Amino acid sequence: MRLSDTLYLSIKTVSSYRTRSLLIVLAMALGVAAVVILTALGDGARRYVTNKFSSIGTNLIIVIPGRAETAGGFPGAVLGQTPRDLTLEDANALAHLPQVRRYAPLNIGVAELVAASRLREVTVLGSTAELLPVRHMELAQGRFLTRGTGHGAQILLGAKLAREFFPQGNVIGQRVRLGDRRFLVSGVLKFQGESMGFNTDEIVIIPIDYAQALFNTSSLFRILVEARSRNDIVFTKEAIFDILKQRHDGEEDITVITQDAVLATFDRILRALTLGVAGIAAISLAVAGILVMNVMLVAVSQRTSEIGLLKAIGAPSADIHHLFLVEALLLSLTGGVLGFILGQFGSLLIRLAFPLLPAWPPTWASLAGVTIAFVTGLLASLLPAERAARLNPVQALSAK
Amino acid sequence: MIYLSGITRLFQMGDQEVRALSGINLKIASGEYVSIMGPSGSGKSTLLNIIGLLDRPDLGRYELDGIDVTSLSEIEQACVRRKKIGFVFQSFHLVPRLTAAENIELPLILNGISPTNRKSIVEEALLKFDLSNRAQHRPAEMSGGQRQRTAIARATILRPTAILADEPTGNIDHRNGTEVMALLERLHHTGTTLIVVTHDRELGARADRHIAMRDGEIVMDDISERPNEIE
Ligand SMILES: Nc1ncnc2c1ncn2[C@@H]1O[C@H](COP(=O)(O)OP(=O)(O)OP(=O)(O)O)[C@@H](O)[C@H]1O
Ligand SMILES: [Mg+2]
Asked: Which of these, A162, A305, A321, B190, could form a disulfide with A157 (CB 3.0-4.6 Å)?
């Protein structure tokens, strides 16, 4: 028998048992669609988180005072001394490293912002002009902190604060008071939302020396360093350790986090999560496979006398085997393809409903879904097809 | 040429052994018209199934057109069945999902004949068996006579050398039965061997040679009444 004829006869059979075929196709389709949609969700979440994380900077290295001991407690505590502070001088020392593209020392505190007869507490960031590129911040209007020394008492307002204090809009050049000092608004940050734990729309940014004076401190909250390239990150991290250790009398009392490492961790966790939900969805595919097997077994016993007839008119066992195999494959493959389409459509709906979530089904999941549908269909039909082919023709003919 | 010697077929029924056929010796020349009669359970169908290679004997030798077919593999037997044997059953055995034309087409499909060639062959057969106006009907939409004509058309579409009919008129009324027999006889007249198993004395009598069976044995074969025909 020709392959095209096997296909032709199988299609005829599948289309004549309409309800049965529809149910199997649906079961397979739902299984595949579940794999596609759930992995789209998982991968969407992964992308969302990693995008958020990489949006805070590129090749970012964060230096934090104090040593985070994995074993618990830090040596300073054991030795009865507090860890040494990070200072502006420490930050400036990093500038000489060839792998460092730019760096921004960071101070943080809370102060009262007074302007236009309004008053509220705000989070204050003290930094330098480099903070803008290092942290991928954007301005809505005006200018950022001026480069170098000798700058005036500049202040940048978060988007929401600017609107709150100056609803009329003319913000640039306005005088504000922060704590007991006067500042001149030089710019407004672009609306950005929550990022890295605080809402940048409700902060103000002032030059680092003003911040240190305001909070009466010489220490830094953090130093943000941008390496020249991704490959430089590990080396830069080592170099930062070396320099600061040297500056801190051989004491390793800092912690260096690379954005890369954090990103990789998140990526790993969310990838595992995606795989997990894909696995759960794949179970429904296996269930659909069992359904196919059951339906094909029923088909064999239902069509026993027909199988006997085919043998009587000279069909070899192989032809009968192929007929049942192709029939099951047709059903599961149709289900797989339909499920793929349903899955793509479902993911589209999710993306429309939650525009922030890039819920694109990963290619591997779509391929795996359709492939698993095909393979379970194949496996599930092996036994029924074998049983059909093995039937004794005389007994098959006398079956009713 | 069908040549059976010492054909024995045993069935195990629980701890009991049923001898469906015991030591059958039979020779049927090409182009003969033979009827096989006998009480129920005498082994007629079993004999026909062995002749048609649907069943294998437990003992004995079977030569079809000079070839020992009992030793052939399953695939080879299917091939012989496809090329040389046309089965006609009491219950027609039409595929209910397929139309008359599609049922008739089945052996052509199994034989790997191209769709274009199939179409003309099927059309010719429909015409020959007076089924042209039933071509697109499914078995459920046809009368018993039409169904059996369709089954005969399917059995003979590849021009087999032997037609094996197991009570071909058992499920249809007398008038249609006579018509079906006439159809089979017409095929016999073109040179096909025709072996008919029947309970109907009148129909059985129409054959040129009459075989009677009882308890798995041939108890009467009127070829033995014509000794000059035995070589
Ligand atoms: N598959 C089987 N298993 C057990 N016994 C069988 C089987 N097939 C046939 N027999 C037995 O073999 C004997 C002959 O059966 P067979 O069908 O050849 O009879 P028959 O002459 O065709 O009868 P009928 O006129 O009723 O069709 C019977 O006793 C039957 O019970
Ligand atoms: Mg019988």
From this structure: A162
